[in-house]
Design brief:
Order of helices and strands: EHEHEHEHEHEHEH
Number of domains: 1
Helix content: 40-55%
Strand content: 15-25%
CATH architecture: 3-Layer(aba) Sandwich
Structural class: alpha/beta
Length: about 240
Amino acid sequence: MDLKNKIALVTGANGGLGVAIVKEFLENNIGKIYCGVRDTQKAKFLEELSNKIVLIELDLSNHTMLETNMKKIENIDLLINNAGVNSGKRVFDDENSDFTINVQGTLKVTQLLSNKINKDGAIINITSILALCNLPIMGLYCASKSALHSLTQAIRAELSSKSIQVLEVLPGPIDTKMTLDESMPKASPKDIVVEIIKGLQTNQEEVYPDDFSRSIKEGLEKDSKGLEKQFSQSVGAL
């Protein structure tokens, strides 16, 4: 897909990866970008980037708001489901935000916009390489991304007859606020978006956009149970 003059909606547009997506899409001559954010007042800086930016209030935990505000959008070429949370909680913790936002909220947005995506358009779901192998110290986040991975496959099948590309992006750690306290190598948001655009242009279904995600993918292909056991050791390390 050539981004020139296309119309996109980016959820979580004021986060680290969201801002990078917006900037790179503008560099690629996108026609218009709806920037979905929870608080439009705190995201005014996005409007300063270009007159192609339209802020739209989107709280993925509030389905009534989603239904109301999605009516403001007539049609788009690209839906980028980028908004997400990582509670950092384990499976026996009392927490539901990961599934509320990453799964239910993302699915609701997609349901509301599926008939507004132009022919030869695309949906981009940002999941995680941890969708494929659970890291128990953040087990709920991983499980929610795994659910979104499965939903992405279903969405791809449902929309195949409409010539809509469904691209899943499975990154490792990205240098954003979400990983601020994690001491590990992190990919830059810009580099992730460059790989996303390549995936769009070459009609890919999955993109592993950084060294970490590619190494985990390779590890899963060689010895999935070994990698599972390695990840499980994170619980005992605490």
